[in-house]
Amino acid sequence: MSRTLYQKLVDSHCVLRLDEEHVLLYADLHIMNEYTSPQAFAGLRERGAPVRRPWQNVAVVDHIIPTHPLKQRVILDEASALQASNLARNCELHGIALFDTNDPLQGIEHVIAPELGMIRPGMVVLCGDSHTTTHGAFGALGFGIGTSEVEHVLATQTLVHRVAKNMRIRVDGRLSVGCTAKDQVLHIIASIGAQGARGYVVEFTGEAVAALSVEARMTICNMAVEAGARSALIAPDDKTLDYVSTRAVDLKRHLPRAVELWRDLCSDPDARFDAEHHFDASEVSPRVTWGTSPDQSIRIDERVPDPAAAVTPQQRDAAIRALRYIGLEPGASLQGLAIDRVFIGSCTNARIEDLREVAKVARGRKVDPRVRAMVVPGSGAVRDQAEAEGIAAELIAAGFEWRQPGCSMCLAMNDDVLRPGERCASTTNRNFEGRQGRAGRTHLMSPAMAAAAAVAGCITDVRRLERADER
Amino acid sequence: MSGKHTIAGVAAALPIANLDTDQIMPKQFLRGIDKAGLDRGVLYDLRFDGEGRPRYDFILNRAEYADCRILVAGENFGCGSSREHAVWGLLQFGIRAVIAPSFGEIFHSNAMNNALLLVAVSQADVDRFTRDVEQPASNRIEIDVDHLQVRSRTHDVKFTMSARHRAMFLEGQDLIGASLVHAAAIAEFERKHWDRQPWLQSIGAVVRARKS
């Protein structure tokens, strides 16, 4: 019978079927952080159960870590420091690989796992973090899970998985100059809605997806969860193989066999999807969110919508509420809207290609004096590479703060927080009320657009700025 | 007629679409290594102003809703972050059930794992319940899990629940214990899986060792 890629991955990881809806799914890799794992380890201790497969697990300190540009980092907040030391203790106790606070390879979990070669096509990856969908970029099935499930994975190396429906999102055409994967995914989310993919695993296909780099594909899969998707997938191709084989060096001797297996990691031609959407990448423009849900975005040349025009009363109420919070009127233009802060970072957009895009815009320009702009690389490795490429020096010269890696102001669990009323151009994934700080106002956009906002002092169309490579 | 397993009590309406887990449990309450004290964080920015003073106009701060046990919420309730702290906090706050048109996926699993009852009914049904419970005089709701029925003063509707989730709720099943029963099957799976794809075995330890 024809199967989708998702069905193939469920089949290849199904330990047993529990009932019509649920399978016991094997987890090849379980990634943990310091804030969603402590209670799971405590539960395990109470139960007296061991970690079943410590070597299929890794852990990293990323959410609470300060990003001050000091080489030796100290976590001053007492509770956060305890979370970090507690994670180290749990890893030590159970023999789990850890990337600790001052490890040169420390970084955001969804950035370091791929860059260190841990993510390979055909895997199941679990993590107590909703953006685990990122790893779909490799044809790996990633699910965000809760802490009870983290404990379940530690004890059994499996997840009780409620089988999802299949959705295919096909993107044809080509992105035009100045438009990125971030704009593409914001466009898709705006179109299908914040729960448009709820209940589904989404497979992204089409020539526009094939044209994207592996890092750009990670941005797309990362944000699929903002449309409510359980997970996201992109069938692996030569780009994936190239990315993985250069990073997963232990794979070398298995590569011919692995490549043969990976060839089957695609949906069969006549596989049935429960829902399908089509998009044309050439219709994508740089996008910016105007509201407090990731589906509330518009093209940079559009005007903030009038809630009165909303389709449902729920959407109308949500829009009214969002505009009140964000401090905008219907019909307003986002172009020219003054900003206080710029945040370039997160598991969505803090990889080397993102920073190169930022540097292209920033090169030879200055951050507007009214703006505080932070660049938080996704990992120590990204930071090192950006320094080696001269990107860091250019950003520093332009007036950006060049910081240490971590989740930082994406969710503001550390001391990088918006003050009430501050407006921020952000390359992150969520513009929720209070996400970056109580009463803070977040506008999601691409790294290039955020860089443009930094130098202009206001939200602006990056296509109007001459890029360094054209100057 | 009520079944044995009934959640009944004061219900409060929160007619907000996409009420995400960041709002249900803000970041500053996520720094613990246990589950204690999360009731303080529930819907914090809605319950309190910037100076930490209660917003008395917010429904959960009104005296008539002080003993609230049930939330009547908007679509996609609990979307966003996977933080289970949102569920732990709601339970500690006294909430036993949430009625909404739909729920965020990870929140849904988290709720089931903690026996926080989620009742999915249509937006029209939610609107009817909302109208009732917005009046303090008719703010009680009864959820009968045996008969899968929700009832407010003027409205009554059936809901569905998978057999598994119903059993989890009614019997408080130990999921980990239930899965550990399959330890032999897991071991057998691993043997075949790693035989076929040896590059997936010990992946965390192998990568860490290579980089150290």
Query: Average pLDDT of chain B, to the nearest integer?
Result: 96
Helix-strand category of chain B? alpha/beta
CATH class category of the largest domain in chain B:
Alpha Beta
Low-confidence stretches of chain B: none
Which overall shape of chain A is indicated by the principal axes computed on the Cα atoms?
globular
Main sheet: strand order of chain A = 5-4-3-6-7
Number of DSSP strand runs of chain A: 19
Task: Label the CATH architecture of the largest domain in chain A.
Answer: 2-Layer Sandwich
Strand residue content of chain A: 15-25%
Number of continuous helical runs of chain A: 15
Q: Largest sheet of chain B, described in full?
A: 7 strands, mixed
Q: Supply the CATH architecture of the largest domain in chain B.
A: Alpha-Beta Barrel
Can you put this structure into words, describing what you see?
Chain A: Its cofactor is [4Fe-4S] cluster. Chain A: It comes from Steroidobacter gossypii. Chain A: It catalyses: (2R,3S)-3-isopropylmalate = (2S)-2-isopropylmalate. Chain A: Belongs to the aconitase/IPM isomerase family. LeuC type 1 subfamily. Chain A has 471 residues and is α/β, with parallel strands linked by helices. Chain A has three domains: 158 residues, 2-Layer Sandwich (Aconitase, domain 3), CATH 3.30.499.10; 89 residues, Aconitase, Domain 2 (3-Layer(aba) Sandwich); 184 residues, Aconitase, domain 3 (2-Layer Sandwich). Chain A is built from 15 helices and 19 strands. Chain A has a five-stranded parallel beta sheet, covered by helices on one side. Chain A has a five-stranded parallel beta sheet with strand order 17-16-15-18-19. In chain A, strand 3, helix 2 and strand 4 form a beta-alpha-beta unit. Chain B is an alpha/beta fold and 212 residues long. Chain B has two domains: 168 residues, Aconitase, domain 4; 31 residues. Helices cover 35% and strands 16% of the residues of chain B. Chain B is globular and about 65 Å long. At the A-B interface, strand 2, helix 2, helix 3, strand 5 and helix 5 of A face helix 4, helix 7, helix 8 and helix 9 of B.
